[in-house]
Write a structure and sequence with these properties.
This protein has 175 residues and is mainly beta. 13% of the residues lie in helices and 40% in strands.
Length: 175
């Protein structure tokens, strides 16, 4: 274990780098999802693990999107997004939407089966669940924006195993 603890209250805790922080965060498992936005031909999507439920009244979620991501500005402009929670067999799709193959924008949607629910943002048909959201708020948070979405439609395939990201890899939790 690697601890950075100050032995006395009067001493400062040594600083750590953003790289050290990223390395520590790699140990925190996260559900893998794809956030989508926009309509044809301007669809965008990106893989992320920084999303969660926020409220049941009104039903809302939040997703944290890097400001440099292709879909970031489209979420703001369109006022909507769909948060698609991936299943165990979606690892290749997660890689594609993370840009590992160099693809961007609408071309990423050549893989997977997509539909539109209410907002027009693409919804992955066989996702564990998809939350179609109208953007209700956004908050600047350093390199990212926290987008809050009010859920206006959802689709569920609850019998699927989830895809998880931990230690720099996509994996399936052991039962």
């Amino acid at each position: 274990m690697n601890f950075r603890v100050s032995p006395m209250p009067s001493q400062e805790i040594p600083a750590f780098s953003s790289k050290e922080f990223r390395n520590a965060m790699r140990n925190v498992p996260g559900a893998v999802s794809i956030v989508t936005t926009g309509g044809r031909p301007g669809r965008h999507g990106l893989t992320l693990t920084a999303g969660c439920s926020l409220s049941t009244e009104p039903s809302s979620v939040l997703v944290c999107v890097n400001k440099s991501a292709g879909g970031h500005d489209t979420i703001k402009q369109s006022g909507s997004f769909c948060w698609n929670i991936l299943a165990a067999d979606h690892a290749e799709l997660a890689r594609k939407f993370s840009g590992q193959d160099g693809s961007k924008g609408d071309i990423r949607f050549t893989e997977g089966l997509w539909r539109e629910l209410i907002t027009g943002a693409p919804s992955l048909i066989d996702a564990i669940c998809s939350f179609d959201c109208r953007l209700s708020d956004s908050h600047d948070a350093g390199s990212h924006t926290i987008f809050v979405g009010e859920v206006v439609a959802q689709a569920i395939n609850a019998d699927r195993e989830p895809l998880v990201y931990v230690n720099g890899e996509f994996t399936v939790p052991k039962r």
